[in-house]
Amino acid sequence: MKPTSVYDMFIISLFLFSQFVRGLEDCRSGMYPPKGPTYCCYSPHMINQMFKGNVTWYTVNLDLPPSERWTQVIKDKNTELFTMVQTIKDMAKGFFHGKLVDLVDEELPLIVDTLPQPFSEEIKGIAAVSGIPLGEITLFNIFYEIFTVCTSIVAEDFNGNIYHARNLDFGLFMGWDQKNKTWTLTEKLKPLVVNINFQRGNKTVFKSTNFAGYVGMLTGIRPGVLSLTVNERFNTDGGYVGILEWILGKRDGMWMGFLTRKVLENATSYEHAKEQLSQTKLLAPAYFILGGNRTRQGCVITRTRINTLDIWELDRKLGRWYVLETNYDHWEDPMIFDDRRTPAMKCMNQTTQASISLASIYDVLSTKPVLNKLTTYTSLMEVSTGTLETYIRDCPNPCTPW
Asked: Are 151 and 330 a contacting pair, CB within 8 Å?
């Protein structure tokens, strides 16, 4: 698969605008639990397209040496991981006459020893078990600093229960398949989605939804304490700048996925997590969406690489019973060709606080274009019960590319 060309982008744009109006729909209802053909307005074939089953659970033992922690996951997902990495390499061959692939294989392994522990040793262990070159596993682990788009919601019901859910959308501009109307990399990532129960002393420390082979965290819950998701924030001072600085020796920033894992593993409270996410210098700008275990504990933290621009919190006095983040500052309008926020908010308001639940939020995240061709999975979390459910998604045509 060649990298997306100018012509490809023209075709994608035409498809986007031709599908956009048809891809919008009324708010979904009755979509949860996502099985069976009886849901309103969808045929059995469309239901089968939208839902591919619960995601497999694995245990990662934090008491093991870092190089051994991911062994079982990688053994089970090695074929899928190899296929995904090969897809990235095939796309990269079109850049700089193939020199980019050589750079990955020759130079990126040198970066691994500069990464903080235990991530460096875990990445080395994954490469050893999989047989995939270390540089390519490293590339997979830094990819998410640049290429993620998502929708995340934290909501509170009338009883003070906090719900947190997200669609993770990934693979933008990574090889558009015109025939199947899918993103190549998105489809390769879906088989890699796993749920992980991180344990220490045979007790759960936190849970996450991961792509097998990636050691950072994009979606996770520390039962009884907090839930956390991260969305990309588009900015000219983006993740590629931070990565370049790291390569050149300026290493005072934290990798986004490593910070979220550190918070999930070590934060003792919602406030403790909010402090770490707000004050730690980053390699990439981001939105951290944080949920807690009591009333009013939910916020969107808008970050540059250096500082925090805004913390947007639940506030019952202001009638703000949910906060919802896609990939744009909440005080600014989203791009007209990428407005997932407006339909998502419409559906949340239509649901009302009286009826909010993980099931009703799943309906919101199942409504196009909140659900789109980039959506790899939907995760649902409730801190008080320690619930984490994840479902791999497909968006039936007509459906917007993003």
From this structure: no
